[in-house]
Amino acid sequence: MNKNLNFAPKLELLVKIGDIELPDFPLLLAPMEDVSDPPFRALCKEQGADVVYTEFVSSEGLIRNAAKSVMKLDIYEKERPVGIQIFGANMESMLQTIDIVEKSNPDIIDINFGCPVKKVVSKGAGAGILKDICLMEQLTAEMVKRTNLPVTVKTRLGWDHDSIKIVEVAERLQDVGCKAIAIHGRTRAQMYKGEADWKPIAEVKNNPRMHIPVFGNGDITSPEKAMEMRDSYGLDGAMIGRATIGNPWFFKQVKHFFETGEHLAPISLAERVDAARRHLQMAIDWKGETLGVFETRRHYTNYFKGIPHFKEYRMKMVTSDDSAAVFAAFDEVLAAFPDYQFE
């Protein structure tokens, strides 16, 4: 923990993104490709997520009417407030995308200035734009002008260690109308290696000229880490990604820890099987049998993490192309481990 930073005092309990009022220190589900789809967002919302974001959507894909990109615009009333995240580096494409996205009636439009993946960065999008802060500012400014919805940004500390200017960048984005900023505590050069550094994010929050919410992202892997981000770094909220995969209860666990100082009782096997079953069924209903089965596989290891000698059942879940076989594997797990207690 870093106890040597002097934080600007919080003047109100509520956190606001534009006119959207959120509780003190809200927990946000991060946009994750092939993860934060409507079925998973629904589960996370049930378990306490205060804001959820779609998978990131390609601006070029949207203006070409690419089926996969258009499908990502599906949002549902029960998940509000919900943000649609878009990425791109071409001004005209991004502005056209705003017009398309607005028709889905999201609560927030989020710009991805942080994705480190090569195929995105090579086009100057995602974290690639961190090499051109002026373009980053111009894109944000023009997108804010194009819509009445609150525009937010998710980004990283910088392109690499020698080019970290996140305090200046955040202020510039705020000054052109960005309503909140989520910052991942790594540079693009780090990808997901090493530990996230939250100190520069705290410096953004501690800038007396900043008045929009500053959310931290990266390595929030436990309720204790979330509390550290809140109490020792003074941030306005946490955007949580990988810790939620196969564990939509993470939001509930964090909130329980904040309220009581104790860990929530372990999630039972029956509850885990029920969530996995609902997750798969919702995925099939939304995207069809083939994709529904395929894209829920990544969650099963964490849904059932800790069960000994689980490989046989996991292999059935992640190799079968037939949903009936996966549902049967869920039943087999319940029958095989009726008394198993998670720690």
TrEMBL record:
SUPFAM superfamilies: FMN-linked oxidoreductases. Its cofactor is FMN. InterPro entries: Aldolase_TIM, DUS-like_FMN-bd, DUS_fam, DusB-like, tRNA-dHydroUridine_Synthase_C, tRNA_hU_synthase_CS. Keywords: Flavoprotein, FMN, NADP, Oxidoreductase, RNA-binding, tRNA processing, tRNA-binding. Its EC number is 1.3.1.-. Residues 28-322 form the DUS-like FMN-binding domain. It catalyses: a 5,6-dihydrouridine in tRNA + NADP(+) = a uridine in tRNA + NADPH + H(+); a 5,6-dihydrouridine in tRNA + NAD(+) = a uridine in tRNA + NADH + H(+). It comes from the Bacteria. Belongs to the dus family. Catalyzes the synthesis of 5,6-dihydrouridine (D), a modified base found in the D-loop of most tRNAs, via the reduction of the C5-C6 double bond in target uridines. NCBIfam families: nifR3_yhdG (TIGR00737). This is tRNA-dihydrouridine synthase. It comes from Winogradskyella damuponensis.
